[in-house]
Amino acid sequence: MRCFIGVPVTGELASTSAVLANGLPAATPVRNLHMTLAFLGNCRPEQLELLNSELAQLAQQSSPFAMYFTQCEPFPASEGPFLALTGEPSAALSHLHQQLNERLAGLGFERESRRFRPHITLAKPGHAQPTKTGEWLLAVDTLWLYESQLDANGRPTYTSLSLFPFSCP
């Protein structure tokens, strides 16, 4: 099964994201909104067992924090193909991402070669959209292990396999 680790987008940010993507083709369904921390690819059941243990430990050692997104812009480049909320990672997010990658490498997962660019994909409109500035807040207080399944048209559906609330004050 194809898996990734992320932070769900809920509440006010989910509502705002839906408004920003309203009317665009291939808008991300609200239930699929998330910020990816690590894409794992295909995982075997025995890997998931070890992964759940590592994620539980990491969450126990992590404190909640906020991630601020400041742009709604074409992503990953100026021509898209996606529209996303983007922002610079905070020190807390950078630390969490580093700790997560170290644990994943210890389990035999490949490290991502691209620089981590926190974003929330809102749509795949097919053409560049104008950039908007603002301040959109994501509460980072839980890690989710997701499964990604593609339908017959190649559209993904994300299902939470497990979640790990942060428990360090």
TrEMBL record:
A motif (HXTX 1) lies at residues 34-37. A motif (HXTX 2) lies at residues 119-122. The active site is at 34 (proton donor), 119 (proton acceptor). It is an enzyme of class 3 (hydrolase). Gene3D superfamilies: Cyclic phosphodiesterase (3.90.1140.10). It comes from the Bacteria. GO terms for molecular function: 2',3'-cyclic-nucleotide 3'-phosphodiesterase activity; RNA 2',3'-cyclic 3'-phosphodiesterase activity. Keywords: Hydrolase. Its EC number is 3.1.4.58. InterPro entries: Cyclic_Pdiesterase (IPR009097), RNA_CPDase (IPR004175). It catalyses: a 3'-end 2',3'-cyclophospho-ribonucleotide-RNA + H2O = a 3'-end 2'-phospho-ribonucleotide-RNA + H(+). Belongs to the 2H phosphoesterase superfamily. ThpR family. Hydrolyzes RNA 2',3'-cyclic phosphodiester to an RNA 2'-phosphomonoester. This is RNA 2',3'-cyclic phosphodiesterase.
